[in-house]
Amino acid sequence: RILNAGYVEYIDLGARHMVTGYDHLLFLFGVVFFLTRFMDVVKLVTAFTIGHSITLVFATIYGIQANYY
Known about the structure:
Layout: H1 7-20, H2 22-34, H3 38-61
């Protein structure tokens, strides 16, 4: 399905990943249970976003692929 997907399918896939992806669930767990100050939340969200961006950039540049099956 994803090999021939369009924009709508990728948006759906991204939304499902945000709700079911273990990395996002652990992130929410950390925010909810361990952070009390707003600036700590901002720092964690920023670090998480930068980490995801770096991963995607390097995967694209070096052609790294995951077995999607």
